[in-house]
Amino acid sequence: MARIGSVRSACILAGIAGIAGVLMIIDSFGINNGPPLSSPDRVFMAYAVSHRTPVLVGAWLQAVGPALIIALALTLVALSRAAERPSGLLTIFGAGVLMTTSLMEIACYIAQLFTSPPELPRIANSFGYAIQHLYFFVAAPALFLPLGWVLLQSALLPRLFGWLALLIGVVFLALGVATINELVLPAPVTAFAAVQALWWLGAGITLIVRSNRVAQMNFDQLQQPVQSRL
Question: Taking 60 as the threshold, does the pLDDT of residue 222 lie above it?
């Protein structure tokens, strides 16, 4: 029974982490809205001086938020007993890629606050726009595609989550290829990020609701021989 209780707690904590992570990221997007990239250096300099605290707060939110979401993703892998399967290992790899990409973008947010040399805030913003391509090229597909397969091979969440994860990964990849010649991603493309936020929010809530069922299912699996699945 202790095992059931620990698994239930893991489900609840991971679900809460995912929900909190999504809310933090959404809040950070409302804070970090710098000047248009075409603005002169003096505008970026003025923004750096007048928005120091909001930018740092937004950077913190956008750093911790993805970390909490990754905690949910890795918990899903662990509870699905996929950590030693190719799909689980690739999900872990994708989580690392997504977190690294996010931290690179956050570093650009902080770099735009340095006003010496005077062109640095504008250059940091340019790097931030460049890094956004990585979410579509590799980061989001690298996480959602294997995670979708993990979920389809388990009864942890409804199968719809697995199919939606695969779809999200494919769409991110397709958008990345379609906008490969765009230095700055169009607003409708970057807005697609909201779809993945809804997925994580739904996954977190569903894992909490199903925590008792998942715990019992996990306990029952311990009583059976482990079967390897790709």
Answer: no
Where do the H-state alpha helices sit in the chain? Answer: 2-31, 41-50, 52-79, 86-111, 120-134, 140-152, 159-178, 187-190, 193-209, 211-222
pLDDT of residue 228: 44
- Long-range (24+ apart) CB contacts under 8 A made by 7-11 are 7/79, 7/211, 7/214, 7/215, 7/218, 7/219, 8/211, 8/212, 8/214, 8/215, 10/75, 10/78, 10/79, 11/75, 11/79, 11/207, 11/208, 11/210, 11/211, 11/214, 11/215
Say if residues 171 and 136 touch (Cβ distance below 8 Å): no
The total number of residues written for the chain in this structure: 230
71 versus 37: the higher-pLDDT residue is: 71
Could you give the CA distance from residue 98 to residue 191 in angstroms, rounded to a whole number? 17
How far apart CA 161 and CA 177 sit, in angstroms, is 24
C-alpha angle 64-68-73 in degrees, rounded to nearest 5: 145
Q: Which of 6, 171, 24, 178 is nearest to 75 (CA)?
A: 6
Banded pLDDT at 221 (limits 50, 70, 90): low
Give, in order, the Cα–Cα distances in Å from 15 to each of 110, 134, 157, 217: 29, 26, 12, 17
pTM for the full predicted model: 0.88
Please name the residues in contact with 90: beta carbons below 8 A apart, sequence gap of 6 or more. Answer: 142, 145, 146
Average pLDDT estimate for 155-176 = 95
Amino acid 2: pLDDT: 46
Residue with tokens 């605290």: 53
